Every structure is written in structure tokens, then in C-alpha cells.
């Protein structure tokens, strides 16, 4: 190797990263025992961020663009290296590239069934699965919390942790919602957004944002599916007596087409018809006995809780659902949703009103701050300001404001300054 080639190999003059994997969150730029020369070119492509680390401290952060690395655009690194007058020699620093694009179609699902109490089927077990999307919003936090000195940090390193957070939040929200299983499909989008927002703060502490969460399916055991199918079949059949008559008519027609042969359908139809006639005959011979009329139907109530419609409930169940005077309720016959306190029928089950706290006298608070000897003092009321050495040149600000102004520029302080001879 020539002397020129050897020298060229010792210094890095182009820093860039092309991600061939499509699932890498962070990558440490390879520079084995090499130094970055003054004026080297840094290329950060769209969807990337570059972070310079010097001796374990995060120095400079670069967004998309092309940069010539000098003291002018490496202010923090220059300070850490002690180059007050610039540098002309190579320098050493670790460079980490972060993918800030969205990573989509990441899968989540329940590894074990979730036990729920359902109004229609009792205690059931459900499974759920879907997908979610993430992206990096704070590369420095991700570097400190997860990446550390890892030279190649990929999505699978955080997937298990994110999946556990999603499943835990999903199970908690589903248990509190009390949505019937047969109505869950109508709430997939709302449920996904509730779960996403519920764990957003915890994930953002890692420098990652959960940009989307979708629920693809919530399934029940096979036995519950069979019960649902049977209920649907009964709904399709409708009137069982008419169905039996229809089956009997089909059996007679099939028998006429096959004289002399056995016909199981005919046997079924004739059996149903004979059973019906026998029941009618017994009904005619049995003297009619007066029956007690059925009790009047119980009013079915609905209530709004956490922006959800819950119900129907009877009066006793409303109390168990945490009914308060301000809870919105509705039943058949009401024109619109009304606070429970305005419905006379609910007066007996509403909790007694709670007396408000005894009002406390308001204590006057200072509302002025002054800036003196390099520090902010206060708050003071306007009469205390002279005691603090107020003059026309004193910097002041009112409580709630952020900018300091000279006292002479505040019209409200003019009478006070006049008494001070300012």
C-alpha cells in the first residue's frame, strides 16, 4: 500500500448510513481505530437522525441534510474537546444513526386467554391479536435507555416489551368496559385508540412513540362460537310451528315421488304433525283455569359512563353501576338523555347529596417579582416592593408573565415610583 493510501485509510472523510435491513432502529457508524478528519462530510438522509457521542456524553444531534463537520456545526463537541479557537486536526467521536421513519405491521396478541364476565354467556375466555406501529421521537432517550453501546439495535429488541404493555392495557380496558362480546366488533377502533393512548406516556420515556394500534380480531372458544351459531340459527328459523308444517309438507311431496319406499323425512313430518294434534286434543279436554296475569315489564334503563352507553339495567342494577346525580340516563319514553337527578323515578336510589366543603377565606398573594443580584425574588404585593429596593431601573414582572421589564415602563408602578422620587 502506498503512503498516500495508508494515510487515507486512517481518516474518515465521509459519514453516512444506508439501511439494508429495513428493521434497524439504531446503528453505530463503523470506524475501527479511525479518526474523523476536520471538514468531513456527514450525510443524514430523510427519516434519519445522527447523534455524536464523546467519552460517554451525548454531544451534537443532526437532522436530515449534508454537513461539513467543523467547529461551527459541532458546538457541543467542540466545547467537550476543549477547542476554543477551532481545530484543524482529526478528532474521535462515536456516531449513531437512528431511523426515525415509522415501523409498521408489528404484531401483538394474547399468549393466554383473558377471563371475562359477559352478560350473555357468563364467564368466558377471549383471545385477541392485531398490529401496531412505532417510530423514534427522542433518539437521545432511546440511546440512554435501551441502545447504550449496542452497535446494531433492531426492532425485535423492543417488540416483546411493547407487546406485553399492549396486552396488559388491552385486558384492563376490556374488563372495565363491560361491552358484550357480540358487540365488541363495533368498538375495535375505539378500543385500539384507548389502549394506545393509555400506554403512550410509558413508551415515550424510552424515546419511542406508539403511532398506531389496530385490533384485528377478538375470538372466543369454540364452544361459545357454537352457541352463537345455534342462537343465529334459531333466529333464522323464526316460528317453530310454521317450520314443522313446512318440513311435513316437504316430506309428503317426497313420499308421493317415491311410493312404496321408506322416507325418513315423511316419518319426521308425520311425527311432528301427530304430536301437534295430540297436544291440541289434550288442550281441548283440559278445563280452562284462570291464570295470574304476568307482572308488568320492568323498565330498562341505559346510562352513559366514560363516553360509553351501558345497559340495559333495572333500578337495582343502576345503583350497582355507580349511578350519581349527574349521570346521564335514558329509558323508553324519555325524549332525550337526562341527568339522573332530574328523573323523579330515580330519586329513591340516588346517593344522598354531599355537603360542599366550608369555604376558606382567601389569603392575599403577592403578584410581583423583582430581579436583583442575578436572581428572581418574590412574589411580593405592590406595597412590599419599596422594601425590596425598587427603583425605576429595577427589572420586574407580574406573576404569570415570563418577560422582565423595567419598572419605569410599567404604568401601574408609576405612582409608587413617584412617591420614591424616581
TrEMBL record:
Pfam families, sorted: Band_7_1 (PF13421), GYF_2 (PF14237)
Domain SPFH, residue spans: 27-236
Domain annotation GYF: ranges: 301-346, 368-413
PANTHER family, per the entry: FLOTILLIN BAND_7_5 DOMAIN PROTEIN, ZINC-RIBBON DOMAIN-CONTAINING PROTEIN
Protein name from the UniProt record: Antifreeze protein
Organism of this sequence: Desertifilum tharense IPPAS B-1220
